[in-house]
UniProtKB/TrEMBL annotation, chain A:
Protein name: Metal-dependent hydrolase
Gene Ontology terms: cellular component: plasma membrane
Membrane-spanning ranges: 31-51, 58-76, 88-110, 122-143, 163-182, 212-230, 250-273, 285-305
Organism (species): Chelatococcus reniformis
Membrane topology, record value: Multi-pass membrane protein
Protein's UniProt keywords contain Calcium: no
Span list, region Disordered: 321-341
From TrEMBL, chain B:
TM annotation in the entry: 20-42, 62-83, 95-114, 120-138, 150-172, 192-216, 250-272, 284-305, 317-336
Name of protein: Branched-chain amino acid ABC transporter permease
Organism of origin: Chelatococcus reniformis
InterPro entries to which the protein is assigned, alphabetical: ABC_transp_permease (IPR001851), BCAA_transport_permease (IPR052157)
Keywords associated with the record: Amino-acid transport, Cell membrane, Membrane, Transmembrane, Transmembrane helix, Transport
Chief subcellular location: membrane
Length: 600, 345
C-alpha cells in the first residue's frame, strides 16, 4: 500500500512539474534527474554492495558519445551502419560498450582486495576522458554537436518539459527496479557483501558474481543517463565525463546517503542546487573566478564522512524510525506458499563427515597434527580443548575456508579437502560464526532468508521485474519457518542489529538451517550467552539432532557440552587427547591434565 | 627510431620513473601504516613546484595561508576533543609543535629575499613549508576516523584532494610554472647526452629509496610504524601511538612529495592540478607492487616512466591512455595469481 501511494505521488509530481516550473528550473530538474540516475547506480554499488567507483562519469560518457556518434556521424563504419539513425541504436551501443568495459574492469579487480576497484576506476576514468578528447572521430576537445531532437514512438522530445517527463519516468523506473532487486534473493546476495565475504561465501553466494551484478547495473544506469544527456544537451564534449565529474557523482551518493535508494535523488538535488548557488556566490566572496565550489564540496564531504558517514537521507530515516511506533508484524503471507524442495536426507547414523589424518602446518607451527574424526546423522559431536588447541584451525578446514597440509575430508561420500566454502554449502554444510556475522540493517527475516540462497533459482532480471514473487514467497516462508523453529517468530520484522546477542546467535542458526543442511557446524555457539540463553540453545540443538541433523560444535563451555553432546572430542596442542562419551572423557586423566594442569 | 632517440627517451623515462618511484614509495608507506590511499600525495608535488617557482620569480609565497588555516583547524579540533573527553581544554603537544614549525617556515618564506638566494635555500624553505602539510592533513582529515573502514578513508582522501586542488587554484593561479634547473651542464657518454638534472633526480631518488629501505626494514621505529597497520589496538597496547605513526608517515610522505616537486619542476611545467596525474602514476607503480612490496613498487614505477616516455614518441596523444591502461594487465595478472577472494580489512 505504502509503495503504491508513494509511486502515485511521485508520478503526479513529475506530471505537473513542467507546468509549474520556470524553464530554468526545468533545466535544473532535468540535470538532477540525469545525475540521480547515475547516483542511483553508485548507491547500489557503494552504499549497498560496499564497492566504490570513481569512474561512473566515464560510463555516462560512453552512453552519451555512443548516442551522439550514431546520431551525427554521416559515414558510419560498416559494422555500425545498421544501428545509425535510430536513438534505440545509440542506446543499445552505449549499453553494450559500457557493460563490456564494466565486465573487463570487474573481472580484473573483484578477486582482489577492496581498494583495487576504486583505483582501477580512477585510472580507467582518466583514460576514457583522454580518449574522448583525442579521438578525431569523436570530435576531439570540441566534441560532437548537431544531435537531432529525440523522437520515440512518434513523440518528439523537443522541449525541456517533455524531456523532464522522459528523464524522470526513466529515473522512477530505475528506482522501482532497484527497490525490487533489493527486496529479492539476488538483492540479498548483493547486500550480504557488506557482511564480510566469508559470511556470503558460506551461505553459498557467488561473491564475484554479486559484485559484478552491482557493478553492471551501475554501469547500465550511467550509460542510460549518458544517452538522456546527449539528447537533452544535443551536444557532447569530453569535459562532463572527466574523472572530476565521476568524483562529483560519488559525492552526490555520499551526501544523499549511500545506503538508501532515495539518497540518490536527495544527493543529486542537494549537490546540483547548492553547486548552482555556490557558483553564483563564491566568486564574489573570493574576488575572482575559479573552481571554488570544489573546495566547499571537498570540505563538506570530509566533515560528512567524519560525523555522518551514512549521509543525509539515512540520518533522516534513522530519526524517523526513532519517532515511529513499532510496525505491527507483517502478516505471514508466506504460509500459503508451497514448501521448497528438500535435499535427500541421509539415514540416521550414516557417516556425514569423515576427516582422516588432518594435518595443518603454518610455517614451523603444527596447528593440527594427524586429527581424525567423523560425524553421523542425528548426533552431536563436540570438539573441545584449551585455548590454542587447534580447534579453530580444524573448524576452518572442515568448513572449506582453509586447506589441510595433509589428510582427507570426505563429506557425504565426496572428497572435500580444500574445496571452497560455497561448494561445501552446496553439498549441505551450514555454519555459524564465533563472532556473529549478521547484516544489522536488514530485518531478522531477511537475514534468515540469506541462508536459503542456494534453494532459489531466479536471476537478476526476474528480481527487477518482480517475476520471482512465487519463489520469493517460498524462500521467505522457509525463513519464517526456521525462525519459528528457533523461537524468533515474533521478531521477524525487527532489525537484526536490535536483537540481544543470545537471539543473534539463534538467528545465525536459523539462517544456517534455512539452507536445509545435513551437517551443521557451530563455532562457539554458547560464548557470551546467559544461563537461560544457553539452556534455550541446548534445547534447540537437541531438537535439530532429533530431526536427523548432524551437528559438530566447537565450544569452550564444559557444562554446556557435557549435557548436550553424544560424543566429545578433546584436543590439545593440535592433537587428539581423548575421544568418547562425555562421562568417560570427563574422567580421562589426559583431559584433566590439559584443563587443570599436571597436579590435578 | 634510432639509438640516439631511444637513449633520449630512455633517459627521460628514467627521470620521470625515478620521481614516480619516490611517490610510489610514499604512497605505499602511508598505506601500510594508516590504510589510507593518499590521493593528495600529488598535491605535495605540485604545491612544492609552484611554491619554488613563485620564489624564483619573486612573487609572494602564499602557502602560509593554507598552513595557517590547517593549524587553526587542528587547534580547534584538539580543543573540542579534549572537552568531549571531559578534560581541561588543551591543545596536544604535537599540534603545538606543528603550528610552531608552520609559523617558522611561513616567516622564513616571507622575510628572506628568496629570489636572490640560491637554489639550495629555495629548495630547503620550500620543503620546510610543505612537510607540515602532511601531519596537519592527517590531524584534520584522517585522525578523527582513523579506525574507520578503508572505504571511508579513501573517500576522505579523494575529498581532500578535490579541496586542495581548488585551494591551489586560489593560491597559485591558473598559470603553469617551471623552475630553473639546478645546473645546465650536459655530459656526453658514448652516443648519449646526459643532462645533469637527470643525474640529480636519479641520485637523490636512489639515496632516498636506500634511506627508506634501511629505515623501514632495519630500524625499530620503522617496524613500529608498520605494526600499527597490522593491528592498531595491538600496537597501542605495546606502546606505539597510532596517531603519532599516522602523523610521522604523512610527514615523510609530504617530505618525499616536496622533494619530488623540487626535482621535477625544472623538467616539466606544473599547473595547480598537475599533481594528481603525477601521483596516479606513482599509484600505478605501487599497485604493480601489490601495495605491499617496496622494491616491486619502485620497479613498477620505473616501468611506468619508460612506458610513458616511449608512448610519447609513438602515440603522443594517447600517452595517458596507454599508461593507465597498463594497469589492466597488471590487475589481471595479480587477480589470476590469487586463488581465493581477498577478504576486506
Amino acid at each position: 500500500m505504502r509503495r503504491l501511494s508513494l509511486a502515485a505521488a511521485a508520478i503526479a509530481a513529475v506530471g505537473v512539474a513542467p507546468l509549474l516550473l520556470t524553464p530554468f528550473q526545468v533545466t535544473l530538474a532535468n540535470n538532477i534527474g540525469i545525475a540521480a540516475l547515475v547516483t542511483l547506480g553508485l548507491v547500489l554499488l557503494t552504499g549497498i554492495a560496499g564497492l566504490t567507483s570513481f569512474g561512473q562519469a566515464a560510463f555516462v560518457g560512453i552512453g552519451a558519445y555512443a548516442a551522439a556518434y550514431l546520431a551525427t556521424v554521416v559515414e558510419l563504419p560498416p559494422a555500425l551502419a545498421w544501428l545509425g539513425g535510430s536513438p534505440w541504436g545509440g542506446l543499445a551501443l552505449g549499453l553494450a560498450l559500457a557493460l563490456a568495459v564494466a565486465v573487463v574492469l570487474g573481472a580484473v579487480t573483484f578477486r582482489l582486495a577492496g581498494h583495487y576497484l576504486p583505483l582501477g576506476t580512477i585510472a580507467w576514468g582518466l583514460a576514457i576522458a583522454f580518449l574522448f578528447g583525442t579521438a578525431d572521430s569523436l570530435g576531439g576537445y570540441t566534441g560532437l554537436s548537431g544531435i537531432p531532437v529525440l523522437s520515440l514512438f512518434g513523440v518528439r522530445f523537443d522541449s525541456g518539459g517533455r524531456l523532464l517527463w522522459l528523464i524522470w519516468a526513466v529515473l522512477l523506473a530505475a528506482l522501482l527496479v532497484t527497490a525490487n532487486l533489493l527486496d529479492s534473493r539476488q538483492g540479498r546476495a548483493i547486500r550480504a557483501l557488506k557482511g564480510g565475504q566469508l559470511m556470503a561465501r558460506s551461505m553459498g553466494i557467488d561473491v564475484v558474481r554479486a559484485k559484478m551484478a552491482a557493478f553492471l547495473i551501475a554501469a547500465a544506469f550511467a550509460a542510460i543517463a549518458g544517452w538522456l544527456y546527449a539528447y537533452t544537451q544535443r551536444f557532447v564534449s569530453p569535459a562532463p565525463f572527466s574523472l572530476g565529474a565521476g568524483i562529483e557523482y560519488l559525492f552526490m551518493a555520499l551526501i544523499g546517503g549511500a545506503a538508501s535508494i532515495w539518497g540518490a535523488v536527495v544527493g543529486a538535488a542537494v549537490f546540483i542546487l547548492s553547486k548552482e548557488w555556490l557558483q553564483d556566490l563564491l566568486p564574489h566572496l573570493a574576488g575572482r573566478t575559479g573552481n571554488f565550489e570544489a573546495v566547499v564540496f571537498g570540505l563538506l564531504v570530509i566533515v560528512l564522512m567524519q560525523h555522518m558517514p551514512d549521509g543525509i537521507a539515512s540520518a533522516v530515516r534513522r530519526a524517523a524510525r526513532r519517532a515511529r511506533r513499532p510496525r505491527p508484524p507483517s502478516p505471514a503471507a508466506g504460509d500459503t506458499a508451497a514448501p521448497l524442495p528438500m535435499r535427500a536426507k541421509p539415514r540416521p547414523g550414516e557417516v556425514i563427515l569423515d576427516a582422516r589424518g588432518i594435518t595443518r602446518r603454518f610455517g614451523g607451527l603444527l596447528a593440527n597434527d594427524d586429527v581424525s574424526l567423523s560425524v553421523r546423522a542425528g548426533e552431536v559431536l563436540a570438539v573441545i580443548g584449551p585455548n590454542g588447541a587447534g580447534k579453530s584451525t580444524l573448524f576452518n578446514q572442515l568448513s572449506g575456508v582453509d586447506r589441510p597440509t595433509a589428510g582427507t575430508i570426505v563429506f557425504r561420500g565426496q572428497l572435500a579437502a580444500g574445496s571452497s566454502p560455497r561448494a561445501m554449502a552446496r553439498h549441505g554444510l551450514a555454519r555459524t560464526f564465533q563472532h556473529v556475522r549478521l547484516l544489522p540493517e536488514l530485518t531478522v527475516l531477511e537475514n534468515a532468508a540469506i541462508g536459503a540462497h542456494l534453494r532459489g533459482r531466479k536471476g537478476l532480471v526476474a528480481a527487477m521485474l518482480r517475476l520471482d514473487r512465487r519463489e520469493e514467497a517460498q524462500l521467505l516462508a522457509e525463513a519464517r519457518r526456521q525462525l519459528a523453529r528457533v523461537g524468533l517468530a515474533a521478531r521477524c520484522d525487527d532489525r537484526a542489529g536490535s536483537l540481544p546477542l543470545g537471539q543473534q546467535r539463534l538467528l545465525e542458526i536459523a539462517r544456517a538451517v534455512a539452507a536445509d543442511p545435513c551437517l551443521l557446524l557451530l563455532d562457539e555457539p554458547a560464548a557470551g550467552l546467559r544461563f537461560e540463553e544457553k539452556q534455550e540453545l541446548a534445547g534447540l540443538i537437541d531438537r535439530l539432532r532429533c530431526d536427523g541433523m548432524a551437528v559438530l560444535l566447537v565450544e569452550h563451555d564444559m557444562d554446556f557440552v557435557m549435557g548436550l553432546a553424544d560424543r566429545v572430542f578433546v584436543m590439545d596442542f593440535g592433537r587428539e587427547i581423548a575421544h568418547g562419551r562425555p562421562a568417560d572423557v570427563q574422567a580421562d586423566p589426559a583431559v584433566l591434565e590439559a584443563y587443570l594442569g599436571a597436579d590435578a | 627510431m634510432n639509438l640516439q632517440v631511444a637513449m633520449l627517451l630512455g633517459q627521460s623515462g628514467i627521470t620521470s620513473g625515478a620521481v614516480y618511484a619516490l611517490l610510489a614509495l610514499a604512497i605505499l608507506l602511508v598505506f601500510s601504516v594508516t590504510r589510507i590511499l593518499l590521493i593528495p600525495q600529488g598535491e605535495f608535488v605540485s604545491f612544492a613546484a609552484l611554491t619554488m617557482a613563485a620564489m624564483q620569480e619573486g612573487r609572494p609565497v602564499r602557502l602560509g595561508w593554507l598552513l595557517g588555516a590547517l593549524c587553526l583547524a587542528a587547534v580547534a579540533m584538539d580543543l573540542i576533543a579534549s572537552v568531549r573527553a571531559r578534560r581541561r581544554p588543551a591543545v596536544s603537544r604535537p599540534t603545538l609543535w606543528l603550528c610552531a614549525w608552520a609559523a617558522a617556515a611561513t616567516a622564513l618564506s616571507m622575510l628572506l629575499p628568496l629570489a636572490a638566494l640560491g637554489h639550495a635555500v629555495q629548495a630547503l624553505v620550500t620543503i620546510a613549508l610543505i612537510v607540515p602539510l602532511g601531519p596537519l592533513l592527517y590531524r584534520v582529515c584522517f585522525q578523527p576516523v582513523a579506525a574507520a573502514h578503508a572505504l571511508v578513508l579513501l573517500v576522505i582522501s579523494i575529498a581532500a584532494h578535490v579541496a586542495l586542488v581548488g585551494i591551489a587554484l586560489f593560491i597559485f593561479g591558473p598559470e603553469g610554472a617551471r623552475t630553473e634547473p639546478f645546473s645546465d651542464a650536459v655530459f656526453t657518454v658514448g652516443p648519449a647526452l646526459i643532462q645533469s638534472q637527470t643525474l640529480w633526480v636519479v641520485a637523490v631518488s636512489a639515496l632516498l629509496v636506500g634511506l627508506l629501505y634501511v629505515g623501514f626494514e632495519r630500524h625499530l621505529y620503522g617496524k613500529a610504524l608498520r605494526a600499527t597497520a597490522v593491528d592498531r589496538l595491538g600496537a597501542e597496547l605495546v606502546g606505539i601511538s597510532p596517531d603519532l605513526a599516522g602523523r610521522v608517515s604523512l610527514a615523510v610522505a609530504a617530505f618525499i612529495g616536496a622533494l619530488s616537486g623540487v626535482l621535477i619542476a625544472p623538467i616539466i611545467t606544473i599547473y595547480f592540478d598537475s599533481g594528481f596525474i603525477i601521483s596516479l602514476k606513482g599509484f600505478v607503480g605501487a599497485l604493480i607492487g601489490g601495495l605491499a612490496s617496496y622494491p616491486l613498487a619502485a620497479l613498477g614505477a620505473l616501468v611506468v616512466g619508460q612506458a610513458e616516455s616511449f608512448a610519447t614518441f609513438w602515440a603522443s596523444a594517447y600517452k595517458e591512455v596507454i599508461v593507465f591502461t597498463l594497469l589492466i594487465p597488471v590487475l589481471l595478472w595479480r587477480s589470476l595469481a590469487r586463488t581465493g577472494v581477498e577478504d576486506e580489512e
